[in-house]
Amino acid sequence: MSGFHEMNGELCADGVPLSSIAEAYGTPAYVYSAGEMKKQYMALSGAMQEYLPADQQPLLCFACKANSNLGVLAYLRALGAGLEVVSGGELTRGLKAGFNPAHIVFTGVGKTRDEMILGLTSGIHQFNVESVPELIHLNAVAGEMNMKAPIVFRLNPHVTGGGHTKISTGRKHDKFGLDETYLKQAFDMLPSLPHIRCEGLSMHIGSQVSTVESFKEAFEKLPGLVRALRAQGHSINRLDIGGGFPIIYKDEKLLDLSAYAKWVRDIISPLKVEIIMEPGRYLVGNAGVLLSRVLYIKQTPDRQFLIVDSAMNDLIRPAMYDSYHAIEPIKNRHLPPVSYDVVGPVCESGDTFTKDRSLPELSAGDLVVIRSAGAYGSAMSSNYNTRPFIPEILTHEGTHTCLRTRQTIEEIFAKEHIPNWL
Ligand SMILES: Cc1ncc(COP(=O)(O)O)c(C=O)c1O
């Protein structure tokens, strides 16, 4: 059995009962299913294998920001993924997880000098450059090191993509990428920048892209632009077409991977370029759950609160994006439904996973999972309310491995100091 499934009336991950994970590591805890990650990776790479020629198979650079646990990264690397990083910290993680630097791409609007030096010394595949000042800075840093920085320019295609305004990145007013005018200016500057080697273009229109036709709309901006740039003598060898593949949290439309692959085949492939993609959420989102225990059931005059031991500091998405996450009991999964507001212990009304949700009746002490928590869950967690980071567990073919142990309170304090004059 792989992925999340029911066995003997209990929710399990890759054949491991979730109650045994709660017993071994306590709650709350993140549980990731290796089987589910592999299924997603194979679905995406399989669609590309079906529609693209063998010599044009894309490098699938997992967007590290979605889930940056070293064990998760190493597993995806073993499946064949490359890595997309947005900071020196993520780049260091990627190297520690064993990625070939030639399979790492570095995006982000605010790369620092130290991050540029790290990228250059490690020999990464490319910097995805997002502004003219960044380009000039990178040329100077590479010059000091007597190197040439491999880059692509990130195009802002002016396409609305992401499933929420905070995760849309390709609109005119977003901070990301260069729009066509600035892009041309940047290409014109290249002859005067001896420490830059431009390889092509990148783009990423947003995350959880809900109108999947937006991908096509964005891709269609590329052929004309590539031909115009080539006509001016620029070599365009690579196109990095980003991530953004949606997953199902509730009732969203699933991306038709064949349709997507056909768009890549019909629009991108004829340009005879190396293709890079940056999937994040798609590979890990539904491979993770936040395993939690019900602490109390609190009745108020007009509602019933299910107070669980996980909170907004563990999973910020509902508070930040009003996102929906399915919530399910581990056992007694088919009892008659009761309406609950599911909340955590943090001192904010925003610490609410859902309101008025019909769930099988629960009691204090029961275990529940908050689903679809494998992407932008642990990676966005914090120590708010001095709550320690929680364990991350990977299940694989009937086994479980701890990928991160629970942080202790002393570890939280370790970097803090009381002035000696107090
Ligand atoms: C540049 C870039 N690439 C890839 C991704 C991954 O997006 P997703 O997780 O939706 O695939 C992001 C997400 O913010 C991003 O900013």
Explain the overall architecture:
- The chain is of the alpha/beta class and 422 residues long.
- It has two domains: 4-32 and 286-413, Lyase, Ornithine Decarboxylase, Chain A, domain 1 (Beta Barrel), CATH 2.40.37.10; 34-284, TIM Barrel (Alpha-Beta Barrel).
- It has helices spanning 18-25, 34-51, 70-79, 88-96, 113-122, 132-144, 180-189, 213-219, 222-231, 257-268, 281-284, 317-321, 409-413; strands spanning 4-7, 10-13, 16-17, 29-33, 59-63, 82-85, 104-106, 126-129, 149-154, 196-202, 238-240, 274-277, 288-299, 304-308, 327-329, 337-343, 352-360, 367-370, 392-396, 399-404.
- A hairpin with a 2-residue loop joins strand 2 and strand 3.
- The termini are far apart.
- The model has no long low-confidence stretch (mean pLDDT 95).
- Pyridoxal-5'-phosphate (PLP) binds at residues 63, 65-66, 84, 107, 169, 204, 207-208, 242-245, 278-282, 375.
Through-space gap between termini? 59 Å
- Mean pLDDT, as a whole number? 95
| Count of DSSP strands | 20
Query: Which CATH-level-2 architecture of the largest domain?
Result: Alpha-Beta Barrel
For CATH, the homologous superfamily of the largest domain is named as Alanine racemase
CATH class of the largest domain: Alpha Beta
CATH topology of the largest domain: TIM Barrel
The helix/strand class is: alpha/beta
Largest sheet descriptor: 9 strands, mixed
Ligands bound to this protein structure: pyridoxal-5'-phosphate
Shape summary: globular
Helix content: 25-40%
Oligomer state of the chains in this structure: single chain
The domain count comes to 2
| Radius of gyration over all CA atoms, rounded | 23 Å
